[in-house]
Amino acid sequence: PLVYFDNASTSQKPKCVIEALTQFYSEYNANVHRGIYKIADAATEEYEKVRIKVNNLINSYSERSIIFTSGTTESINIVAHSWGVENLRKGDEILITEMEHHSNIVPWQIISKKTGAILRYIPMRDDILDLNNIDNLINNRTKLVSIIHQSNVLGIINPIREVIEKAHKVGAKVLVDAAQSIPHMNLDVQNLECDFLTFSGHKMCGPTGVGVLFGKENILENMDPVFGGGQMIEKVSLDKSTWNEIPFKFEAGTPNIAQVIGLGAAIDYLMNVGFDFIREHVSELIQYATSELQKIEHITIYGPNQNQGSVISFNIDKYSAYDLVKLLDCYNIAVRAGHHCVQPLMNHYNISSSIRKSFYFYNTKSEINYFIECLKKTIKIIDH
Ligand code: PLP
Prior knowledge:
The chain is globular and about 75 Å long. A hairpin with an 8-residue loop joins β13 and β14 (311-316). It contains 13 helices and 17 strands. With 384 residues, it is of the alpha/beta class. The strands form five sheets. Strands 2-10-9-8-7-3-4 form a seven-stranded mixed sheet, with helices on both faces. A four-stranded antiparallel sheet has the order 13-14-17-16, covered by helices on one side. Helices cover 40% and strands 18% of the residues. The structure holds pyridoxal-5'-phosphate (PLP). Pyridoxal-5'-phosphate is lined by residues 71-73, 101, 103-104, 148, 152, 177, 179-180, 200.
């Protein structure tokens, strides 16, 4: 028996996803877009079917906007190293937030150093983003806003629509990091009007090694590829090459075929479970867990009182987060201790780590009861 409360890190995988991988490897393992024999056709067909599924999942404009990557990190880096390098100049501004995951900070630090663009941050005010100064932060020099949708540490969903509208008024592009939101809700890129959206398959029941970069077609058309190699070209001669059409221009080399097919199975599975159910169930778990945790003496829960997300982060008085989590593991409880790849946010709270419980639709209230019981036991063990 395992109580798995580390879903913000990666989700567990349903059988149908594991079976989709096995079926690919055992029945029609072949490379895509190349062979003209039956199993190569089957592999290409299954791979491309997933592009259609992703297109439908996020209500994108067309499959041409859907690029398969290895995950959110690679997706953001592609935008940074292609769009960023081509469009940012000295004095331009990139705006991100103080609660970003490192994968939406570090690429922009690298690119701002390369281009001379200035990296600015929407600061935290208490437990939320401080948008009071937003009209100053988003100005004529702003060329890109890159923002996390749902926090991986605080129970927060950011008001991205408001930010997107303001950014578009000054002609800036907007990237939405949806790594934490897409496992839990219906996203609609046409409605959001974001220019880029990124996410990982492994946090939404899919395999590791697959993710998505959505980009508006006209923007992708004008971006250069980051990686060169097979599949992304139209013609290669000794002195120059021309590029394949989008999205293939951005998928150099043999892609993660099995993982993409597994992601397709995960999307079918989640659609079957239903995002309404997922949100409702996880929200009930969050409310219940919060009220139970609040009964623990000397606990500090980070984030706003009204938790809108799927994670709860906390520390308890003098107890090290690492000690508690290590002891909880003895009871087969998997929770995370650490900085959760958001060191600037940890600095805002003046802490170096926290314990993070993150839920998904398969978690239950009885698991939360077991967690609380074991947490109390671990505190007693340390006290003695
Ligand atoms: N962005 C957010 C908000 C995340 O929570 C994560 C992973 O935890 C990432 C980006 C990076 O995702 P990956 O490691 O799958 O590339």
